[in-house]
Design goal:
Blueprint (H helix, E strand, L loop, with lengths): L15 E10 L2 E11 L4 E5 L6 H8 L7 E6 L10 H4 E4 L11 H11 L6 H8 L15 H13 L5 E4 L8 H16 L3 E6 L2 H4 L5 E6 L2 E7 H8 L3 E4 L3 H10 L4 E3 L4 E3 L3 H10 L6 E4 L2 H11 L17
Parallel strand pairs: 3-7, 3-8, 5-6, 6-7
Antiparallel strand pairs: 1-2, 1-4, 8-9, 10-12, 10-13, 11-12
Helix pairs in contact: 3-4, 4-5, 8-11
The protein binds adenosine-5'-triphosphate and magnesium ion.
């Protein structure tokens, strides 16, 4: 076990359940009859483009917004019914609300004291989130990524079994994202329930076990990443000065492809394309596997969802 914890604190979280959760703001149906579950021992990603309703759903889960209908529970209870929420649920909704003149350690000490948490909790979470050496720095000078870490540190103070993180990769650099991935993986492996939101599948592809895809307030998909990946198929993006010959070779091999601004998008793995190109002595300037999952996610969230109006037919641009 990587982390040391107070032995009195139970690790297991309990499942998060959203049951028919619905919320409108005026004309906007921000969250529309969402049914979803996030299980202990798993990292569940709530995925969707801007305005999908992710934050609103998480705010309802945390009792910060009242649903119009439906219910959100953690281990079977609404957030406001939890006997000891600080020790049961840790949440980071946005990296803000810090007193800029306070040090990271003071910020955590104040929170810990207010919640009657053990004196060693602030140091423990600073170490866990990689902020130990910044403990005495003022939060006002923190970068966005450091604030994200401090938000996580605050959420982990009570050593909760359930973590709810809204866009936790926001502001993190690639090493930061890698670190976060390992950190939340460890938390889930300890039996905790981790629910995090993101608008980019690529950011959570390596973190999440399960994805809940949302757009326009609706839950479009609840599935394992493995299932989504299998469904997405494989593809390559090819740059070649010999596009016509490669296209002909692909046609002859029965592999479908499309021209893009810069090259060819091919429905085959980079290995298959590379071998075919070598057989035909076709020069390639670039060959990479496309983020198939990202494409599938994009398609899913861009599809018309009744009763939403059908969009005008658009050329399937590959981004
Ligand atoms: N307090 C509010 N008042 C009015 N409209 C709101 C409010 N909160 C959210 N909305 C609207 O509800 C919809 C969903 O917003 P929400 O913030 O939940 O989306 P999101 O998926 O978190 O988006 P993002 O990726 O941009 O964070 C949006 O149309 C938004 O404008
Ligand atoms: Mg949001």
């Amino acid at each position: 076990m990587k982390r040391s914890r107070a032995p009195t604190v139970p690790t297991g979280g309990g499942a998060i359940e959203l049951n028919g959760l619905t919320k409108s703001f005026g004309e906007v149906r921000a969250v529309d009859d969402v049914h979803a579950v996030a299980l202990p021992g798993q990292v569940t990603a709530l995925l969707g483009p801007n305005g999908a309703g992710k934050t609103t759903a998480l705010r309802m889960l945390l009792g910060l917004v009242a649903p119009d209908s439906g219910i959100a529970t953690i281990g079977g209870q609404r957030y406001d019914e939890l006997p000891d929420p600080v020790r049961q649920v840790g949440a980071v909704l946005e990296a803000s609300g810090y007193h800029p003149g306070r040090t990271a350690l003071d910020h955590l000490r104040i929170l810990a004291t207010a919640s009657r948490l053990p004196d060693d909790a602030p140091r423990r979470v600073l170490a866990e989130t990689g902020l130990a050496s910044d403990a005495r720095r003022r939060v006002g000078g923190f970068s966005l990524g450091m604030r994200q870490r401090l938000g996580l540190a605050s959420a982990m103070l009570g050593d909760p079994g359930v973590l709810v993180l809204d866009e936790p990769t926001n502001g993190l650099d690639p090493p930061g994202v890698r670190w976060l991935r390992g950190y939340v993986r460890g938390l889930a492996d300890e039996g905790r329930t981790v629910l995090l939101s993101s608008h980019a599948l690529s950011e959570v592809e390596l973190i999440a076990d399960h994805v809940l895809v949302m757009a326009q307030g609706r839950l479009l998909r609840s599935s394992s990443l493995a299932a989504l990946r299998a469904e997405a198929g494989v593809g390559s993006m090819v740059l070649t000065p010999d596009r016509d010959r490669l296209a002909a070779a692909l046609d002859a091999a029965g592999i479908s492809h499309r021209r893009t601004d810069e090259g060819l998008a091919v429905d085959a793995t980079p290995e298959q394309v590379g071998e075919l190109a070598a057989q035909h002595r076709i020069v390639l300037h670039g060959l990479e596997g496309t983020a198939d999952l990202e494409k599938a996610f994009f398609r899913l969230t861009q599809e018309p969802h009744p009763p939403v109006e059908r969009p005008k037919s658009a050329e399937g641009a590959l981004s």
